Amino acid sequence: MTELIPCIIAGGAGTRLWPVSREAHPKPFMLLPDGQSLLQKTFLRASRLPDVQRLLTVTNRDLLFSSQDHYRKVNQRNLTLEYLLEPCGRNTAVAIALAALHVQRHHGDQAQLLVLPADHLIQDETAFAAAISQARRLAAAGYLVTFGIQPDRAETGFGYIELGAALANGGYQVARFVEKPNSATAQTYLEGGQHLWNAGMFCLQVDVLLRELELHAAEVLMVARDSLAASRILQGDGSLQCELPSEIFAKAPNISIDYALFEPSKQVAVVPCTLGWSDIGSWQALRELLPSDAEGNQTTGDSVLHEVHNCYIDAPNRLVGAVGVENLIVIDTPDALLIADASRSQDVKYIALELKRRDHDAYRLHRTVSRPWGSYSVIEDGPRYKIKRIVVRAGESLSLQMHHHRSEHWIVVSGMALVVNGEHDFLLDTNQSTFIPAGHRHRLSNPGVIDLVMIEVQSGEYLGEDDIVRFDDVYGRVPAATVQV
Asked: Which candidate, 270, 50, 55, places its Cα nearest to that of 178?
């Protein structure tokens, strides 16, 4: 059979899982109770399929380094990693069109794409592999193949697929796609046995997909072609990165592959399956992965409970005491606290959307922010000052940069720092420090073999993360641009 290339689509902010999921640290990067992220689990699931040698990821360019960090920890087979980097979100239609064109260019018309959301959980990998094998036969026969999950409850939070005629190669034609139903309709679907949950996973042969896109979504395909033709390619160290141009990509229609292609196409088939599947779409869904105590409570971290029933409390860094409450979800992070009625966990998205409307930092960032060289944590900030804890991994380096409005005082807590400060290069050891005036070119590197930990004290009239001019950067970020560190 022709080559199978898994394509992980990693987009969306996961607003229903705020305050852990945020724009710069979305749902795929959340760690589950076993310590692995949803993105890592998706990667591992795809990498274990027979004959898979490479993996393609379509994601926002700002999430590239986080994606690489998560993959690095689980890529024991040394798969070739390819990335299509979007400058902004434009939904799944253009993402999948880009993936198809990329695969056609590098691997030919007969290659098959296995499109996987980055933030779903599948617990039965044997059933998953069997469903993929069946889908590949249907894709080779000329069908656009989707996967339908056998429902086990009357769920109103998912879209449904209505079964049509049975096919000779297994699976069924799709009679129609159905929007999220009300509870009475969902119960009818459950009892009737002709409707499946829409899992948002697809198996597609490239030539068939591109032909159907040309027929039903020509504008999407045109923008994808133009974006790919004008993209910047970086290749090396077993990976390929394709950075898409903002001015062209922004013209893409903001539409899902379901609306753009699967609903109008007559070539759609579905493989029914039972996979132990969950989209982890809310805190209520996540808590179902954890065991409960005798009172129906699930807790993470240190807690003292008195007459508390059916509550989910996730507070890894703070002692929580609760008295006489029930059916609550409590999520504590260093800079935000969520308290919600457990029956309304889907409505957490309204908090996140309001924060976005206010342009509040808690929508975008955590106190600890990942960077390609390591991370920084904001310890305290106030008028004209900010204190950060900076961790630089061994062998890594920040960009050579300058700030217009702030000065910085660096103090080494542990490790060794190589510093560029104006015209001077020097080493700083533990307990040593340096002062960097506003306007000075500077760079921080870790020449050692252990993490470099520093305290940075910023002072000045403006302390925003966009007050950075880059002159040189080992990670390929645009030089001489005012962008976030």
From this structure: 270
